[in-house]
Each structure stands twice: as C-alpha cells, then as structure tokens.
Write a structure and sequence with these properties.
β4 (107-124) and β5 (129-137) form a beta hairpin. This protein is 8% helix and 55% strand. The chain is elongated, with a radius of gyration of 25 Å. The protein is mainly beta.
Length: 347
C-alpha cells in the first residue's frame, strides 16, 4: 500500500513539473515586454532578431463630422452658398493585415495589406440627403527596416518602403444628379492612390527600466501620375510617444502625432465638378481642397500575455482626438480615431 502511495506521489510530482515547465514564464524574450513595441497606431516601429516572425492584425476607425475651412469651423449652410452639395459625415474603417520577418541580422522585412470601407453622408441645397460608400483592398506595401544603431538602451532604424497600386481609384456610386446611373466618386471615396509610392522613415526608441520613449518621422512620396491623370499629394508625419510598464504584462502610453497632407496634382476627368447649370458640385471633387494639417493626441494600452506558450501574443488599443486641425476646405474635420490590434511573434 505504501509503495503504491509513493508511486502515485512521484507520478503526481512529475505531472506537476511538466505543467510547471509549460506554464512557467521562463527566460523572457526581448519582444515579451509590453512596451517593447510602440503604441499600436505606429507602423514599422520595431525590428526583430534573425529568424523571428510576427503576424499582426489591426482594426482602425476614424470618424469625421462637422466642417472646417482653414482653422475655422463653418456651417453646412455656409458651404451650400458656394456648392450644390456638402458632405456632412464620413466614417472610415480599415482592417490591416501584416507580417514581419528578420531573414538576417539588422534587416527586418514587413508587408501590410489593408481592407478599407468608406461611407460618406451628404446634404443638398434643396434639403435632400444621400449616402455614398466604397470598400475593397487598399494599396499593398513592402518595407525594409534596417538597424543603424543599437545599444542596451537606445535603438535607431530606417524605414524604406514601397506602396503598390492595388487599391481601386475607379469607385462609383449613385447620386441625386446621376440616378439611376452611377458616376465616379470624389477623391476621398477612392480606395487607393493609383501610384507607386516611396515610404521613407526613421524610427528611434529608448528605454530606462520601466520607462520607454520613442519617435518616428515618415513620408509618402508619390512617384508617378496614375491612370486617371492625377497624383495624390505627398504626406508627411512626425510622432513621439512615452510609455510606462506597470507590470511585465501591462503598459500605458501617451502619443502626439503631427500630419501634413498636400493637395492633389492634376484632376480625374471622370469626377464631376459642376452641376449641369455650372454650379460647383461638392468640395470633395475639387483636387485643390484636399490639403490638411492635424495634431492628434492619443492614449494607449499594451497587454503582453505572460504565459510561456503564448508569450509572443500581444493585444493593444489606442484612441485619440485632434487638438488642432487646418484644411484647405471646406472639408470634413476629424472627430476621433482609434486602433485595436493583435500581434503574435514566433521566436
């Protein structure tokens, strides 16, 4: 009887040891810190060790409501004094699928594919209301992240990306003037750029114990005119963030981002700009009214799963509001934006 009890105890001990080996945290990989990655709204923020692979999914949403011209908010009635139609509201949703792999030391390759959904509401001079919408696959991007400088506390890498014109620029919809026919929708309702775009950037990050900080400068440089005879304006952004790791699993961040979008060069002849009577149709159809500047303030949380089998799994959320907006309008102003993401790293 005693022998059976001892054998049972030894078997239980072995089982507990196996389970402990599976679920114990063990040595912490470099990526298994909650703030090892920037806030989820920052793309291409980190690199990987040779052989590491990461898959990611982001859900992004931006809501626009109200109108602005320059620094000032304006009423719908004011816009309708000069245009037959005014936009009143727009929602943008994006599902971003990504993967990163480090084939060799100092080089990480990143690919990203967005799926975009756009919906815009309008008001006419006569009081009529109508919606337009579009959705589809956006522009596919490939980026090389090249480590320049790396110490125990500091890191600097270059972002060298290329965007391919896989997103549609021929989206159509019905409007009160065109019904029942469909017409080419204005520029904000198109899914892609229609051009090959160079995506340069420079990213820095630093750490001292539980405090992490970083910054990134990036651009979108349009390299050609698309088949619809126009070229989206170049875009530039600078962002900086700070984060604090409360535990080995949870960190919180604050971030500021300044973005500058230039006006469109050229014009799509398929986009109607006036009514049959010669009245300007809608501000969104004017390529000279697309430039903007915006300063966003955002707060985020990163959660790193602490258990060894899932230690490469990270959940993150970030949301923010504009603190300053300027438009070559009239144009819709941004109300709020958010990003939710899941990342999984294979060591």
């Amino acid at each position: 009887m005693m022998n059976k009890t001892m054998r049972a105890a030894r078997a239980a001990g072995v089982a507990m040891a196996v389970l402990a080996g599976i679920w114990a945290p063990g040595p912490e990989p470099a990526f298994a810190r909650p703030a090892a990655h920037a806030p989820i709204g920052v793309m291409g923020d980190h690199t990987h060790a040779p052989g590491e692979v990461m898959f990611s999914y982001r859900y992004m949403r931006m809501a626009m409501n109200g109108l602005r011209d320059g620094d000032d908010t304006i009423s719908r009635q004011k816009v309708l004094e000069d245009f037959a139609v005014t936009p009143t509201k727009m929602d943008m949703e994006m599902h971003m699928f990504g993967a990163m792999v480090a084939p060799i030391e100092r080089l990480t390759l990143m690919v990203m594919l967005p799926v975009v959904s756009l919906d815009m509401e309008h008001l006419t001079r006569t009081g009529g209301r109508f919606d337009t919408s579009s959705d589809g696959v956006g522009d596919f991007t490939v980026t090389a992240l090249v480590d320049f400088w790396k110490t125990e506390r500091h890191k600097l890498h270059a972002n060298l990306g290329l965007s391919f014109p896989t997103g549609s620029i021929t989206e159509v919809g019905r409007t009160p003037l065109s019904d029942p026919a469909k017409v080419r929708l204005p520029y904000p309702m198109q899914i892609g750029s229609g051009t090959y775009d160079f995506l340069p950037g420079l990213t820095y990050s630093g750490r001292h114990e539980s405090i992490v900080w970083g910054g990134q400068a990036r651009g979108e440089i349009r390299m050609n005119e698309n088949h619809a005879d126009y070229q989206l304006g170049n875009a530039y952004a600078i962002t900086g963030w700070g984060a604090y790791e409360f535990t080995n699993s949870v960190s919180a961040s604050l971030r500021l981002e300044w973005s500058h979008q230039l006006n469109i060069n050229g014009r799509d002849p398929s986009i109607n700009t006036t009514t049959p009577g010669g009245v300007p149709l809608v501000p969104t159809a004017d390529p000279g009214r697309r430039a903007s500047m915006r300063l966003d303030a955002l707060a985020g949380v990163n959660f790193q799963v602490p258990w060894a089998p899932l230690s490469g799994l990270r959940f993150a959320f970030e949301a923010g509001l504009p603190t300053y907006q300027h438009y070559d309008g009239p144009a819709l102003e941004t109300d709020w934006l958010l990003t939710f993401g899941v990342q999984y790293t294979l060591p």
